[in-house]
Each structure stands twice: as structure tokens, then as C-alpha cells.
Amino acid sequence: MVRLDGGSAVPAHFRGGIVALGNFDGFHRAHQAVVGAAVERARAEGRPVLVATFDPHPVRFFKPDLPPFRLTTLDQRERLF
């Protein structure tokens, strides 16, 4: 697993990949299904798969007055993926 941040260029070997995009906080069954579908499609098409998530949670930008909330840290999500 390779961890990139928003300031990193996507390595050439990941370009053209299938992306599972979501907050994935907690990584419950529905999140697992989204990532699983991306993995299945990527394998079928012989392409790389990427999981894209957000840190901080997007609500911080849309409702900055709300107190921060997260079920898992970015490091924990990486282990769950």
C-alpha cells in the first residue's frame, strides 16, 4: 500500500486506475462493498485500484462551526483498508 496526500503527484503506475472515493470513516460493510467493487473491476480490467479518502473530514469545510468528529484516524483507516 502506498499512501499519497493531496500535494503528491500520482505515480505513473497508478494512472488509469479505478478509484473508490469516500470518507470511509469506520469502514463498515457498505464501505467495504464500495472498495470491493472497485477492486473487482480493477482486476477484471487489469488496472490498479486506489482508495481515496479525506482528512480532515469534509464537513470541516462545509460546516466549520461544528465540533470535529471522526470514528477513525487516517492511520487507522489505512490499516482497515
SSE layout:
Blueprint (H helix, E strand, L loop, with lengths): L17 E4 L7 H17 L3 E4 L6 H4 L11 H7 L1
Structure description:
- The chain is α+β, with helices and mostly antiparallel strands and 81 residues long.
- 35% of the residues lie in helices and 10% in strands.
- The chain contains 3 helices and 2 strands.
- The chain has helices at residues 29-45, 59-62, 74-80, and strands at 18-21, 49-52.
- The chain has a two-stranded parallel sheet.
- The chain is globular, with a radius of gyration of 14 Å.
- The mean pLDDT is 89.
How would you sum up this structure in a few lines?
35% of the residues lie in helices and 10% in strands. The protein has helices at 29-45, 59-62, 74-80, and strands at 18-21, 49-52.
Task: Kindly list the characteristics that best describe this protein.
2 strands, 81 residues, two-stranded parallel sheet, alpha+beta, 3 helices
Residue share in helices?
25-40%
Listing every helix as H and every strand as E from the N terminus to the C terminus, the arrangement reads EHEHH
Mean pLDDT: 89
Please report the number of helical segments.
3
- Uncertain stretches: none
Largest sheet geometry: 2 strands, parallel
The Rg value, from CA coordinates, equals 14 Å
Trace the largest sheet across and list its strands.
1-2
Structural class by SSE content = alpha+beta
